[in-house]
Protein backbone atom coordinates (compact mmCIF):
# COMPACT_ATOMS: atom_id res chain seq x y z
CA UNK A 1 0.00 0.00 0.00
CA UNK A 2 1.50 3.36 -1.02
CA UNK A 3 2.50 5.88 1.61
CA UNK A 4 0.15 8.81 2.04
CA UNK A 5 2.62 11.10 3.80
CA UNK A 6 2.39 13.52 0.87
CA UNK A 7 -1.33 13.93 1.64
CA UNK A 8 -0.88 14.60 5.35
CA UNK A 9 0.35 17.51 7.43
CA UNK A 10 1.53 17.79 11.02
CA UNK A 11 1.02 21.17 12.62
CA UNK A 12 1.16 22.75 16.03
CA UNK A 13 -2.01 24.72 16.60
CA UNK A 14 -1.91 27.71 18.94
CA UNK A 15 -5.42 28.45 20.17
CA UNK A 16 -6.08 31.99 21.31
CA UNK A 17 -9.01 33.26 23.34
CA UNK A 18 -11.12 36.07 21.91
CA UNK A 19 -8.98 38.56 23.85
CA UNK A 20 -5.84 37.28 22.10
CA UNK A 21 -4.34 35.41 25.05
CA UNK A 22 -3.55 31.67 24.75
CA UNK A 23 -6.29 29.25 25.71
CA UNK A 24 -4.37 27.15 28.22
CA UNK A 25 -5.07 23.70 29.65
CA UNK A 26 -8.46 23.49 27.99
CA UNK A 27 -10.23 20.79 25.99
CA UNK A 28 -10.98 21.80 22.40
CA UNK A 29 -12.67 19.90 19.59
CA UNK A 30 -10.78 19.66 16.30
CA UNK A 31 -12.69 18.36 13.29
CA UNK A 32 -12.01 18.04 9.57
CA UNK A 33 -14.32 19.99 7.29
CA UNK A 34 -12.95 19.21 3.84
CA UNK A 35 -10.21 17.61 1.76
CA UNK A 36 -7.53 19.45 -0.19
CA UNK A 37 -7.60 16.56 -2.68
CA UNK A 38 -10.42 17.01 -5.17
CA UNK A 39 -12.80 14.05 -5.02
CA UNK A 40 -15.03 14.87 -7.97
CA UNK A 41 -18.09 13.65 -9.79
CA UNK A 42 -20.19 15.05 -12.61
CA UNK A 43 -22.90 17.45 -11.54
CA UNK A 44 -25.14 16.91 -14.54
CA UNK A 45 -27.89 15.34 -12.44
CA UNK A 46 -28.50 18.52 -10.47
CA UNK A 47 -28.90 21.12 -13.21
CA UNK A 48 -32.66 20.63 -13.27
CA UNK A 49 -32.81 20.65 -9.46
CA UNK A 50 -30.88 23.92 -9.27
CA UNK A 51 -33.28 25.43 -11.79
CA UNK A 52 -36.46 24.03 -10.18
CA UNK A 53 -37.33 22.15 -13.38
CA UNK A 54 -39.31 18.97 -13.79
CA UNK A 55 -38.70 15.75 -15.72
CA UNK A 56 -39.78 17.43 -18.95
CA UNK A 57 -36.46 19.29 -19.04
CA UNK A 58 -34.07 17.91 -21.63
CA UNK A 59 -31.31 15.90 -19.90
CA UNK A 60 -27.73 17.01 -20.53
CA UNK A 61 -25.51 15.11 -22.92
CA UNK A 62 -23.41 12.27 -21.52
CA UNK A 63 -25.39 11.57 -18.38
CA UNK A 64 -27.98 12.98 -16.07
CA UNK A 65 -30.76 11.51 -13.95
CA UNK A 66 -34.37 12.68 -14.16
CA UNK A 67 -35.08 15.80 -12.14
CA UNK A 68 -37.50 13.92 -9.88
CA UNK A 69 -34.69 11.78 -8.46
CA UNK A 70 -32.10 14.54 -8.09
CA UNK A 71 -33.07 15.72 -4.61
CA UNK A 72 -32.59 12.26 -3.14
CA UNK A 73 -29.27 11.89 -4.94
CA UNK A 74 -27.98 15.24 -3.72
CA UNK A 75 -27.38 14.10 -0.15
CA UNK A 76 -25.47 11.05 -1.35
CA UNK A 77 -23.41 13.16 -3.77
CA UNK A 78 -22.54 15.88 -1.26
CA UNK A 79 -21.60 13.40 1.44
CA UNK A 80 -18.60 12.19 -0.58
CA UNK A 81 -17.62 14.66 -3.29
CA UNK A 82 -16.14 18.15 -3.12
CA UNK A 83 -15.67 18.91 -6.83
CA UNK A 84 -18.24 18.95 -9.63
CA UNK A 85 -17.92 18.91 -13.42
CA UNK A 86 -20.67 20.70 -15.35
CA UNK A 87 -21.37 20.16 -19.09
CA UNK A 88 -20.51 22.87 -21.59
CA UNK A 89 -20.78 20.74 -24.75
CA UNK A 90 -21.18 23.46 -27.34
CA UNK A 91 -23.87 21.71 -29.37
CA UNK A 92 -26.11 21.51 -26.31
CA UNK A 93 -25.00 24.73 -24.64
CA UNK A 94 -25.52 26.89 -27.74
CA UNK A 95 -27.42 24.89 -30.40
CA UNK A 96 -28.67 28.17 -31.86
CA UNK A 97 -25.97 30.75 -32.34
CA UNK A 98 -26.22 33.62 -29.91
CA UNK A 99 -28.54 31.78 -27.50
CA UNK A 100 -26.24 30.07 -24.96
CA UNK A 101 -27.68 28.24 -21.95
CA UNK A 102 -25.79 30.54 -19.59
CA UNK A 103 -28.49 31.23 -17.01
CA UNK A 104 -29.28 27.54 -16.32
CA UNK A 105 -25.64 26.51 -16.03
CA UNK A 106 -24.81 29.54 -13.89
CA UNK A 107 -27.58 28.65 -11.43
CA UNK A 108 -26.27 25.08 -11.31
CA UNK A 109 -22.72 26.30 -10.73
CA UNK A 110 -23.86 28.55 -7.88
CA UNK A 111 -25.87 25.65 -6.41
CA UNK A 112 -22.65 23.69 -6.03
CA UNK A 113 -20.46 26.63 -5.01
CA UNK A 114 -22.94 27.58 -2.28
CA UNK A 115 -22.38 24.10 -0.84
CA UNK A 116 -18.61 24.45 -0.79
CA UNK A 117 -17.99 22.48 -3.97
CA UNK A 118 -15.25 23.40 -6.47
CA UNK A 119 -16.82 23.60 -9.95
CA UNK A 120 -15.18 22.81 -13.29
CA UNK A 121 -16.55 23.41 -16.80
CA UNK A 122 -16.15 20.70 -19.44
CA UNK A 123 -15.19 21.37 -22.23
CA UNK A 124 -14.67 24.71 -23.94
CA UNK A 125 -13.52 23.16 -27.22
CA UNK A 126 -14.28 19.66 -28.57
CA UNK A 127 -15.15 18.11 -31.90
CA UNK A 128 -17.98 15.97 -30.46
CA UNK A 129 -21.38 17.48 -29.58
CA UNK A 130 -20.09 20.48 -31.48
CA UNK A 131 -22.27 23.45 -32.36
CA UNK A 132 -23.96 22.42 -35.63
CA UNK A 133 -23.95 25.94 -37.05
CA UNK A 134 -20.14 25.92 -37.21
CA UNK A 135 -20.40 23.66 -40.27
CA UNK A 136 -21.63 26.60 -42.34
CA UNK A 137 -18.62 28.78 -41.47
CA UNK A 138 -15.21 29.08 -43.07
CA UNK A 139 -12.21 27.84 -41.11
CA UNK A 140 -11.25 31.39 -40.13
CA UNK A 141 -14.82 32.02 -38.98
CA UNK A 142 -14.77 28.80 -36.95
CA UNK A 143 -11.60 29.99 -35.23
CA UNK A 144 -13.13 33.37 -34.48
CA UNK A 145 -16.33 31.78 -33.16
CA UNK A 146 -14.37 29.36 -30.95
CA UNK A 147 -12.26 32.20 -29.58
CA UNK A 148 -15.36 34.30 -28.86
CA UNK A 149 -17.19 31.39 -27.24
CA UNK A 150 -14.32 30.73 -24.83
CA UNK A 151 -13.91 34.39 -23.88
CA UNK A 152 -17.64 34.82 -23.32
CA UNK A 153 -18.15 31.74 -21.19
CA UNK A 154 -14.97 32.03 -19.12
CA UNK A 155 -15.93 35.65 -18.37
CA UNK A 156 -19.58 34.86 -17.61
CA UNK A 157 -18.68 32.12 -15.12
CA UNK A 158 -15.55 33.67 -13.56
CA UNK A 159 -15.62 33.50 -9.80
CA UNK A 160 -17.89 30.47 -9.69
CA UNK A 161 -16.17 28.31 -12.34
CA UNK A 162 -12.44 28.96 -12.35
CA UNK A 163 -11.34 25.53 -13.57
CA UNK A 164 -11.85 24.41 -17.17
CA UNK A 165 -11.15 21.49 -19.44
CA UNK A 166 -10.11 23.94 -22.13
CA UNK A 167 -9.85 21.57 -25.07
CA UNK A 168 -10.74 17.90 -25.22
CA UNK A 169 -9.24 14.93 -27.07
CA UNK A 170 -6.97 16.82 -29.44
CA UNK A 171 -4.91 13.74 -30.31
CA UNK A 172 -7.78 12.46 -32.45
CA UNK A 173 -9.35 15.83 -33.28
CA UNK A 174 -7.87 16.47 -36.77
CA UNK A 175 -8.81 12.99 -38.05
CA UNK A 176 -12.13 12.49 -36.25
CA UNK A 177 -14.66 11.28 -38.83
CA UNK A 178 -17.69 10.13 -36.86
CA UNK A 179 -19.61 13.32 -37.57
CA UNK A 180 -18.90 16.52 -39.53
CA UNK A 181 -17.89 19.40 -37.27
CA UNK A 182 -16.05 22.69 -37.39
CA UNK A 183 -13.36 21.82 -34.84
CA UNK A 184 -11.97 18.86 -36.78
CA UNK A 185 -11.64 21.08 -39.84
CA UNK A 186 -9.92 23.77 -37.77
CA UNK A 187 -7.46 21.31 -36.22
CA UNK A 188 -6.75 19.71 -39.62
CA UNK A 189 -6.15 23.02 -41.37
CA UNK A 190 -4.15 24.78 -38.66
CA UNK A 191 -2.69 21.87 -36.71
CA UNK A 192 -3.16 20.59 -33.20
CA UNK A 193 -0.84 22.97 -31.35
CA UNK A 194 -2.12 26.19 -32.96
CA UNK A 195 -5.67 25.04 -32.19
CA UNK A 196 -4.69 24.40 -28.57
CA UNK A 197 -2.95 27.79 -28.41
CA UNK A 198 -6.09 29.53 -29.65
CA UNK A 199 -8.19 27.91 -26.91
CA UNK A 200 -5.71 28.42 -24.07
CA UNK A 201 -4.90 32.01 -25.02
CA UNK A 202 -8.58 32.92 -25.04
CA UNK A 203 -9.19 31.32 -21.64
CA UNK A 204 -5.99 32.62 -20.03
CA UNK A 205 -6.43 36.18 -21.22
CA UNK A 206 -10.02 36.21 -19.96
CA UNK A 207 -9.33 34.70 -16.54
CA UNK A 208 -5.58 34.81 -15.79
CA UNK A 209 -5.98 32.99 -12.45
CA UNK A 210 -8.06 30.10 -13.78
CA UNK A 211 -6.84 26.50 -13.66
CA UNK A 212 -6.72 25.34 -17.28
CA UNK A 213 -6.50 21.69 -18.34
CA UNK A 214 -5.58 19.83 -21.50
CA UNK A 215 -7.70 16.65 -21.44
CA UNK A 216 -7.59 13.39 -23.40
CA UNK A 217 -8.62 9.73 -23.38
CA UNK A 218 -5.53 8.67 -25.38
CA UNK A 219 -2.99 7.36 -22.87
CA UNK A 220 -0.47 6.44 -25.57
CA UNK A 221 2.80 8.16 -26.39
CA UNK A 222 0.84 10.26 -28.89
CA UNK A 223 -0.60 12.27 -26.00
CA UNK A 224 2.82 12.57 -24.41
CA UNK A 225 4.25 13.91 -27.69
CA UNK A 226 1.39 16.39 -27.93
CA UNK A 227 2.01 17.64 -24.40
CA UNK A 228 5.73 17.98 -25.14
CA UNK A 229 4.93 20.07 -28.21
CA UNK A 230 2.44 22.23 -26.33
CA UNK A 231 4.89 22.98 -23.51
CA UNK A 232 7.78 23.58 -25.92
CA UNK A 233 5.52 26.07 -27.73
CA UNK A 234 5.22 28.04 -24.49
CA UNK A 235 1.54 27.34 -23.89
CA UNK A 236 0.82 27.41 -20.16
CA UNK A 237 -1.06 24.29 -19.07
CA UNK A 238 -1.96 24.14 -15.38
CA UNK A 239 -2.87 20.46 -15.15
CA UNK A 240 -2.96 17.38 -17.38
CA UNK A 241 -6.32 15.67 -17.72
CA UNK A 242 -6.35 11.88 -18.02
CA UNK A 243 -9.54 10.00 -18.83
CA UNK A 244 -10.05 6.49 -17.46
CA UNK A 245 -13.35 5.11 -18.70
CA UNK A 246 -12.82 1.45 -17.83
CA UNK A 247 -15.90 -0.03 -19.49
CA UNK A 248 -13.76 -2.88 -20.80
CA UNK A 249 -12.23 -3.70 -17.44
CA UNK A 250 -10.21 -2.22 -14.61
CA UNK A 251 -6.73 -1.13 -15.64
CA UNK A 252 -5.16 -2.61 -12.51
CA UNK A 253 -2.65 -1.01 -10.17
CA UNK A 254 0.43 -1.65 -12.30
CA UNK A 255 -0.98 -0.16 -15.51
CA UNK A 256 -2.45 2.80 -13.63
CA UNK A 257 0.85 3.46 -11.87
CA UNK A 258 2.75 3.31 -15.17
CA UNK A 259 0.38 5.81 -16.76
CA UNK A 260 0.61 8.18 -13.81
CA UNK A 261 4.41 7.99 -13.77
CA UNK A 262 4.64 8.65 -17.52
CA UNK A 263 2.54 11.79 -17.39
CA UNK A 264 3.96 12.97 -14.06
CA UNK A 265 7.31 13.54 -15.77
CA UNK A 266 6.00 16.85 -17.12
CA UNK A 267 5.95 18.25 -13.59
CA UNK A 268 2.29 19.26 -13.77
CA UNK A 269 -0.57 18.14 -11.52
CA UNK A 270 -2.55 15.21 -12.87
CA UNK A 271 -6.34 15.22 -12.86
CA UNK A 272 -8.12 11.93 -13.48
CA UNK A 273 -10.99 13.72 -15.16
CA UNK A 274 -13.32 10.89 -16.17
CA UNK A 275 -13.21 7.57 -14.32
CA UNK A 276 -15.72 4.76 -14.64
CA UNK A 277 -15.86 1.19 -13.37
CA UNK A 278 -18.77 -1.09 -14.21
CA UNK A 279 -20.98 -3.11 -11.89
CA UNK A 280 -22.31 -5.32 -14.69
CA UNK A 281 -21.04 -7.06 -17.79
CA UNK A 282 -17.91 -5.56 -19.29
CA UNK A 283 -17.87 -4.13 -22.80
CA UNK A 284 -16.26 -6.53 -25.29
CA UNK A 285 -12.54 -5.96 -25.72
CA UNK A 286 -12.71 -5.63 -29.52
CA UNK A 287 -14.74 -2.39 -29.34
CA UNK A 288 -12.45 0.51 -30.24
CA UNK A 289 -14.87 3.42 -29.80
CA UNK A 290 -16.91 2.94 -26.62
CA UNK A 291 -19.83 4.73 -28.28
CA UNK A 292 -20.15 1.85 -30.75
CA UNK A 293 -21.35 -0.58 -28.08
CA UNK A 294 -25.14 -0.38 -28.13
CA UNK A 295 -27.25 -2.79 -26.07
CA UNK A 296 -30.93 -2.70 -25.13
CA UNK A 297 -30.29 -3.51 -21.48
CA UNK A 298 -27.14 -3.26 -19.38
CA UNK A 299 -28.02 -4.14 -15.79
CA UNK A 300 -26.01 -3.95 -12.62
CA UNK A 301 -25.48 -7.40 -11.10
CA UNK A 302 -24.58 -8.60 -7.59
CA UNK A 303 -21.34 -10.10 -8.87
CA UNK A 304 -20.53 -6.95 -10.80
CA UNK A 305 -21.25 -4.75 -7.81
CA UNK A 306 -18.83 -6.71 -5.65
CA UNK A 307 -16.18 -6.40 -8.34
CA UNK A 308 -16.82 -2.67 -8.77
CA UNK A 309 -16.46 -2.05 -5.03
CA UNK A 310 -13.13 -3.88 -4.94
CA UNK A 311 -11.85 -2.09 -8.01
CA UNK A 312 -12.90 1.37 -6.91
CA UNK A 313 -11.00 0.95 -3.66
CA UNK A 314 -7.90 -0.22 -5.50
CA UNK A 315 -8.21 2.57 -8.07
CA UNK A 316 -8.61 5.38 -5.54
CA UNK A 317 -5.85 4.06 -3.31
CA UNK A 318 -3.55 4.14 -6.32
CA UNK A 319 -4.57 7.67 -7.29
CA UNK A 320 -4.40 9.16 -3.80
CA UNK A 321 -1.12 7.33 -3.26
CA UNK A 322 0.54 9.06 -6.21
CA UNK A 323 1.95 12.48 -5.31
CA UNK A 324 1.30 13.97 -8.78
CA UNK A 325 -2.46 13.34 -8.68
CA UNK A 326 -4.42 16.37 -7.52
CA UNK A 327 -7.96 15.39 -8.47
CA UNK A 328 -10.03 12.34 -9.38
CA UNK A 329 -13.49 12.73 -10.92
CA UNK A 330 -15.85 9.77 -11.12
CA UNK A 331 -18.15 9.92 -14.15
CA UNK A 332 -21.61 9.57 -12.67
CA UNK A 333 -23.32 9.17 -9.32
CA UNK A 334 -26.17 7.01 -10.63
CA UNK A 335 -27.03 4.41 -13.26
CA UNK A 336 -30.13 6.45 -14.15
CA UNK A 337 -29.29 8.29 -17.34
CA UNK A 338 -25.67 7.09 -17.25
CA UNK A 339 -23.41 7.54 -20.27
CA UNK A 340 -23.94 4.70 -22.79
CA UNK A 341 -26.53 3.21 -20.44
CA UNK A 342 -23.73 1.42 -18.66
CA UNK A 343 -24.00 0.34 -15.00
CA UNK A 344 -21.15 2.63 -14.06
CA UNK A 345 -22.84 4.64 -11.32
CA UNK A 346 -22.20 4.36 -7.61
CA UNK A 347 -25.95 4.38 -6.98
CA UNK A 348 -28.48 2.07 -8.62
CA UNK A 349 -31.21 3.45 -10.85
CA UNK A 350 -33.67 2.97 -7.96
CA UNK A 351 -31.62 5.37 -5.81
CA UNK A 352 -30.01 2.83 -3.47
CA UNK A 353 -26.23 3.01 -3.00
CA UNK A 354 -24.09 0.22 -4.40
CA UNK A 355 -21.24 -1.29 -2.38
CA UNK A 356 -18.86 0.89 -4.42
CA UNK A 357 -20.50 4.02 -3.02
CA UNK A 358 -20.11 2.76 0.54
CA UNK A 359 -16.51 1.81 -0.17
CA UNK A 360 -15.58 5.21 -1.55
CA UNK A 361 -17.37 7.02 1.24
CA UNK A 362 -15.50 4.92 3.82
CA UNK A 363 -12.19 5.96 2.27
CA UNK A 364 -13.00 9.66 1.84
CA UNK A 365 -14.93 10.32 5.05
CA UNK A 366 -13.55 7.69 7.42
CA UNK A 367 -10.10 6.32 6.66
CA UNK A 368 -8.83 9.57 5.12
CA UNK A 369 -10.73 11.85 7.51
CA UNK A 370 -10.27 13.24 11.02
CA UNK A 371 -13.53 12.88 12.92
CA UNK A 372 -14.30 15.38 15.70
CA UNK A 373 -11.57 14.79 18.27
CA UNK A 374 -11.17 16.29 21.73
CA UNK A 375 -7.65 17.54 22.41
CA UNK A 376 -6.22 19.46 25.35
CA UNK A 377 -4.15 22.58 24.92
CA UNK A 378 -0.85 22.97 26.74
CA UNK A 379 0.13 25.62 29.25
CA UNK A 380 1.01 27.82 26.27
CA UNK A 381 -2.25 27.14 24.43
CA UNK A 382 -0.67 24.80 21.91
CA UNK A 383 -1.93 21.45 20.64
CA UNK A 384 -0.55 19.14 17.91
CA UNK A 385 -2.85 18.37 14.98
CA UNK A 386 -2.18 15.72 12.36
CA UNK A 387 -4.40 14.82 9.44
CA UNK A 388 -5.07 14.85 5.73
CA UNK A 389 -4.48 18.23 4.18
CA UNK A 390 -7.63 20.27 3.97
CA UNK A 391 -9.92 22.51 5.97
CA UNK A 392 -10.52 22.01 9.69
CA UNK A 393 -12.13 23.72 12.64
CA UNK A 394 -11.28 24.10 16.30
CA UNK A 395 -14.32 24.74 18.47
CA UNK A 396 -16.12 25.78 15.30
CA UNK A 397 -13.50 28.27 14.07
CA UNK A 398 -12.06 27.29 10.68
CA UNK A 399 -8.40 26.88 9.80
CA UNK A 400 -6.38 25.22 7.05
CA UNK A 401 -4.05 22.30 7.51
CA UNK A 402 -2.05 22.77 4.32
CA UNK A 403 1.53 21.96 5.39
CA UNK A 404 3.69 21.12 8.36
CA UNK A 405 4.35 24.00 10.72
CA UNK A 406 2.60 26.49 12.98
CA UNK A 407 -1.04 27.53 12.82
CA UNK A 408 -2.67 30.19 15.00
CA UNK A 409 -6.44 30.31 15.51
CA UNK A 410 -8.31 32.93 17.52
CA UNK A 411 -11.60 31.80 18.95
CA UNK A 412 -14.69 33.91 18.55
CA UNK A 413 -16.35 35.67 21.45
In CATH terms, what is the fold-level topology of the largest domain?
TIM Barrel
What is the H level of CATH, i.e. the homologous superfamily of the largest domain? Glycosidases
Structural class label: alpha/beta
Mean pLDDT across the residues is 95
Share of β-strand residues: 15-25%
Q: Briefly, what CATH class of the largest domain?
A: Alpha Beta
- Spatial arrangement of strands, main beta sheet: 3-4-5-6-7-8-9-10
Instruction: Report, as a whole number of angstroms, the end-to-end distance.
Output: 45 Å
Helix proportion range: 25-40%
What is the H/E string? EEEHHEHHEHEHHEHEHEHEHEEEEE
Q: How many beta-strand runs?
A: 15
InterPro entries: GH, GH10, GH10_dom
Keywords: Carbohydrate metabolism, Glycosidase, Hydrolase, Polysaccharide degradation, Signal, Xylan degradation
EC number: 3.2.1.8
Organism: Cellulomonas terrae
Explain what this protein looks like in three dimensions.
It is built from eleven helices and 15 strands. The chain has helices spanning 47-50, 67-78, 90-93, 102-113, 139-157, 182-190, 192-206, 221-232, 253-264, 302-321, 355-367, and strands at 8-16, 27-35, 38-42, 83-87, 118-122, 163-168, 211-216, 239-246, 270-277, 325-330, 373-376, 382-388, 390-394, 397-401, 405-410. Helix 9 (253-264) links the parallel strand 8 and strand 9. The protein is globular. By secondary structure, the protein is an alpha/beta fold. The protein starts with 7 loop residues before the first strand and ends with a strand. Helix 9 packs parallel to helix 10 (302-321). It folds into two domains: 5-32 and 371-410, Immunoglobulin-like (Sandwich); 37-367, TIM Barrel, CATH 3.20.20. The longest helix is centred in the last third of the chain and has 20 residues, at 302-321.
Amino acid sequence: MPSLNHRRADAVLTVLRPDGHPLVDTDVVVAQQGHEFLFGNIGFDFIALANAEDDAAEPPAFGGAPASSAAALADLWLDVFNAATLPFYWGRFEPVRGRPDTARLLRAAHWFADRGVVVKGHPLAWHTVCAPWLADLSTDEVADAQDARIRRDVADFAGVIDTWDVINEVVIMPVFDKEPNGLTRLAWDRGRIPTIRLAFDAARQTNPTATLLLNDFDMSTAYECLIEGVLEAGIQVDAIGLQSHMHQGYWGEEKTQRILDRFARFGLPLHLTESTLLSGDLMPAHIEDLNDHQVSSWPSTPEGEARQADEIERHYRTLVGHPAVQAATYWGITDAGAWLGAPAGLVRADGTPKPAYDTLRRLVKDEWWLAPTTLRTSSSGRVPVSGFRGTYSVDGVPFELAHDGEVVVRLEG
